[in-house]
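> tool_call: predict_assembly(chains=two)
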Amino acid sequence: MSQTTQLLVGTRKGAWVYRDDGARKAWRAEGPLFLGQIVSHYVQDPRNPRIQLIAAKTGHLGPTIFRSLDAGATWTEASRPPAFPKASDPQTARAVDHTFWLQPGHADEAGVWWAGASPPGLFVSDDNGATWESVAGFNDHPMYGKWAPSDSGTPDGPLLNQIVIDPRDAAHMYLATSTGGVFESGDRAKTWVPLNKGVEANFMPDPYPEYGQDAHFIALAPTNPDRIWQQNHCGIYRLDRPGEMWERIGKAMPSEIGDVGFTITPHPRDADTAWVFPMDGTDVWPRTSPGGRPAVYRTTDAGASWRRQDRGFPLEQGWFTVKRQAFCADEADPLGLYLGTTGGEMWMSDDEGEAWRPIAAHLPEIYSVVAAPTP
Amino acid sequence: MNPVWIPSQLHAYTGGVSRVEASGPTIDAVLDDLDRRFPGLKFRVVDEQGRIRPHMRLFVGRQAARDIGAPIAQGAELLIFGALSGG
């Protein structure tokens, strides 16, 4: 019997699980989980698929982490959710508004999870998310106030929106933020340096600053972790380490489409292939599909060229917005791609982006979609 | 002891119960006592710096509470409400 896929869906009003029939043809919805809670991320542990974590808050209540150790059958709450240290001046002290990103730790570090928060904060757990500690190496870095100014960020607040771990070395990590761009650590989060050379910040007096960029999404190529893909506020970039100068591969996108978007999804088996979901970044930044015609664009040559894939999407009046955690791939062959829209629709392709079809509608605003094997 | 009103937003912690009792010389201490009985409740009402969260409202009797360090008289009622928070 073939492996079944599940889609873990976080929305502004709760979480859902969609399970396939083993052929990715029919999908069955389960949920809602935590109806009414704002779910920023819902993630399964690849090291132990029975462990799942959900980052949640509500309009009224503060943030927390819900945990399941039995593949979602039962849930408990973190006894100590991510929180900044108590400060001497409570009026200016930081408090976690919401946890935005949940990152299972390195394959060799069972039980370790990392979390990114708003305002920008890095937190770590070594007990499968039961208790969390503030990571002083970033949160108390002397440059924190410049890397994460409190007056900048997204409509939902400034973000530490991603944590990426080198699969070859648990101590080698990258962060993406909406306030300072990308940062790198070689000592397991004790120290950090900006990694933004060549990345534009066209909203700053110096458009190529050392830090201050808005890194919407970064991803390592799974078969070549020296390659980093980045969908930035100002374009699509690629960096091949140990190089430090990002290349704006979005320059090869059609000019009428541009290279603005929230997310980029690499192919799990081909380091030269990735997909983006462009959005309109003209004038007042509608952040909808350019021209009302949704499409993904695929590169198979590391960003030297891009090809439009839109079969199945609306040909007109399709004003999709896809947030940074809502576009993902499974690991099947041919690859399955999944995206969730802020209008509560989920779409998939089971042929590496050639054709798309809707698999869910009428959900609340979708924040995150994670494809994972059913335990 | 102090009677405490628990709003619907926190019923997941109290098993659906709206009226409970807790004790302490300050609002903070009463919330700590509540948190011992209903783990996790306090952090969803008060942030890690001891500030009441923006969309929560606390009253002692009919008096709005701004500072959880304020004393609360034995027997006074603490009311926790979820305020307006958008759609």
